């Protein structure tokens, strides 16, 4: 157990309370990456990055032995309790691997692991390409009637993109007055497998179609000239869980099995009860609170 003073959670609560008074959406001056970076500084613990878990084995005394891999080398970690924030598909792979040879001390967890893996694999995931760009213009080149948080396009429309976020409109103080930031999200498989240059062109074509931004001439529909300062393309594979019909029933059954058969395992992350950053924070706080209450007795 790790004790910090002041508590990172209490500081986060205070920050969130202040932010809610200003806007329903929030970010940080240097982006959302500040959140995990700052947590890594505050929490005094061993943090292993790029160290994927491979399997779990229950050992004597109902303790976990976590098999992982770090820098292509095997790693073994011992734990009284494991909190998994892995995506559902990734945790399913770990549990599938754990089902073989996990019967130490006369206990057989094969059926339990397989049942959990089946429920986890029933949660489908969407891959998404994210295209970010920074534009320089004397003033915002977007049509006034279109400015806001952004827009989403229903898949039934058959459009090339999922939608666009207008960071400069949502967070006007996060960049200079002459900078306009936009993020375009693309989910069509036909585009995701193509080179980044192709994905960037898809994003530019969508912005011209929806917002009148012509990247060839550098003119917007409202007559404001703009130039591209930077662009970035990242393809996130299997990144957004899809809560399909029957999701709550499957997830509730999963939690029942874990509670009754694997009490040394807790589930967090965005696969179960909310996909946003706010949801994952809420879920993580709930998991930790439950453990603290359990360990009191």
TrEMBL record:
GO terms for molecular function: oxygen-dependent protoporphyrinogen oxidase activity. Residues 29-281 form the Amine oxidase domain. It holds the Pfam family Amino_oxidase. Coiled coil: none annotated. GO terms for biological process: heme biosynthetic process. One of its GO terms (cellular component) is mitochondrial inner membrane. It comes from the Eukaryota. This is Amine oxidase domain-containing protein. It comes from Eutreptiella gymnastica.
